[in-house]
Amino acid sequence: xxxxxxxIGTSVIMALLFLAAFFWALxxxxxxxxxxxxxxxxxxxxxxxxxxxxxxE
Amino acid sequence: MISYRSIxxxxxxxxxxxxxxxxxxxxxxxxxxxxxxxxxxxCKGVYQILAQNNLCSYYNYNSSPGEKKGHTEQHLEYxxxxxxxxxxxxxxxxxxxxxxxxxxAIHCSSCLWLLEHLHKINSAVAHSRVDFLKKQxxxxxxxxxxxxxxxxxxxxxxxxxxxxxxxxxxxxxxxLVNRDLILKIAVSGFCMGNVMLFSFPEYLGLxxxxxxxxxxxxxxxxxxxxxxxxxxxxxxxxxxxxSLKNKVINLDTPLALIVAVxxxxxxYEIISGAGPGFSDTLIGLVFLLLMGRWVKQRxxxxxxxxxxxxxxxxxxxxxxxxxxxxxxxxxxxLEIGARILVRNNEIVPADSILMKGEGCFDFSFVTGExxxxxxxxxxxxxxxGRQIGEAIEMxxxxxxxxxxxxxxxxxxxxxxxxxxxxxxxxxxxxQYFSVAxxxxxxxxxxxxxxxxxxxxxxxxxxSVLIVACPCVLALSTxxxxxxxxxxxxxxxxxxxxxxxxxQLARIDTVVFDKTGTISCPETNNLTFSGELxxxxxxxxxxxxxxxxxxxxxxxxxxxxxxxxxxxxxYIEIPGKGISASFDPHEVLMGSxxxxxxxxxxxxxxxxxxxxxxxxxxxxxxxxxxxxxSLKGLIVSLKVHYRLHVISGDHSDEKKDLMEVFxxxxxxxxxxxxxxxxxxxxxxxxxxxxxxxxxxxxxxxGALRQSDLGVAVTDNINNFTPGSDAILKGNAMGKMPQxxxxxxxxxxxxxxxxxxxxxxxxxxxxxxxxxxxYPLTAAILMPxxxxxxxxxxxxxxxxxxxxxxxx
Lengths: 57, 806
What we know:
Chain A contains two helices and no strands. Chain A is mainly alpha-helical. Chain A has one domain (3-42). Helices cover 46% and strands 17% of the residues of chain B. In chain B, the strands form six sheets. Chain B has a seven-stranded mixed sheet with strand order 16-28-27-26-17-24-25. Chain B has a six-stranded antiparallel sheet with strand order 8-7-9-15-10-13, with no helix packed on it.
């Protein structure tokens, strides 16, 4: 059962890593706007052939 | 032609035709481009710009996503001024500039898509990013290729006019406070998860094998608990200490006490090896409390309550230099003696003398007078007046910082400390609660000591403090009130913070301002007493059309669509009226003394008399139009609340007001801003809880003095004086429902307090006997919390439905 000491240590360190990742994300401003990205991802990608009909103007 | 006809036939069969761009019904002949119908040139113009730049996907994401454009002339030269430029941008180097605009028109995903594809319209835009909820767009562009002015013009041309005001220059940093709280929540959440894990074996009962881990788990828990105590709950200790220094007890006082007791007892148990401690309860408590704080702090970003007089002023003014060339100048650089140009609809930025042109100023926002005032050359015009009519030249006599408007705003009498506000329910109850809990703890400890069981006495003392936690109060109040805030928000009633809801529930007196608050500022009601033939109407309309006087403009608008006849001679005498001749007819329009000097003089500023060919025809009277919901509002309010009307305007419309208000309602006219403040103060001395509804700067003092100041506005992006709440004009009729909802919310909080007390009593039953096990505490606390969250949520929804609020 001594393996538990190792496992507990690992789990705490991993959790600390996740916490650090959250800190980084927060400092980076990723939580400043939590609404817009959800809408943005639904847009169609810009198609390259959109350039074509320019002669029509 | 064929396609045109086919469109016409389809539009005939459908009941109404809608504009492809803005979705409004097309009343007149539709404009057509690419087989699509448009209501006006503005909408068509925007479509054509988008079509040229291959941006028609804009119309795919939503049907008719555009908004109608106003036909306002823009003078944006000031944006090229280096001083203003550097204040507006976030960052700028030799090649790139980063700027954030606030754009009120952002409302749907199409807006988002279009604004993020600005680079297709102009390649100098490198990048643009929208924050939808804040209605902001952050644009990176090359200012060498595309000056700021042109960028703003592009935005205006596609219907997204940014709001640029002096206030935007001062960017607020309110977001940082919130970040700190989120960090604390994250840390406490992290601690809670781990502590739960390590406490689990304890809940299930330890087998012999697991006993070797007990010490390890205990110390790990203690480590996490210290983080939670010393980092996460720092604010509670600071706040509790602050209030104790002021010899008051607020809600944070018992909370800080409990956190401290929990920590000390857990540390003692773990270090001495006496037991597992209460680390899980401690961290769970801290986490929930922080969540409560977050809910309370979560504000609605799209409204700013921190606007001051600066946002009412333009960013720049047009200066005339020695060579009489127009130069844009930042408003703060305006010096005494400067010659400035004020165009139609612009605001006089500083106290100045009228030097050239015909001045007619709308002071309704500053003084409450509903009718524009004509000023003659050489007169001093106070800052804040809005010029109506032609462009005028003025000479500045006082710098902006010492102008009438600025001094009015900075007046000491208008400043109020927040302490005069009534204490909220939480802080009141916290006092009794703390005293009661400490009393029970002492009594039970005393009992056990008396019985000779010192260990149990200490046990009971700390257990009572732990279990009788007012955390439900700290959680249910912000939850309930912020739900109400959200409901109000959807109904166009925006509160500054959650305390305002409680304030609203206490109201028993409502004071109304007149101009702009209960009257519509834009639409006036014109009536003509007398009779005019169709031909005479076109005569009057033709005369009025030549004049820039606001009353003439309203008459032109009222007589819209009449034939225009060209006058042979036209003389306008400022302050009196107009005489014009259309061979062989002669028309006189203007004040009573000018039109028919022989008659009795009853002077009324808002009448225009008409005389055609020497014969008196009658007069136009301008009545202010009351808000449509006003009548219903007064009917329902007058039953439960004392009503008052105070106005800075003259008493001409008292009669009209009497039709709406019951006759016993006190009405005061010609009130200065200071008078209004004093009046509210007197009402408060008489034990009334006053809600003041006002709109302009002249109400600012009264709004701040009142227990609840509500600024009424038609455009929430407009400047409103300092207030606790902002109400959109069209939501005014819902006021009684808002008050009822607020009262229900307070009721809900009281109910949740009773429920929490029942849970606490169960806990105290175990605690006084010194039999509180960590598991009991760990179960009781989340139980009561969950009950409260469910209750407040359901109850709030029920009441919102009952009061027909969205």
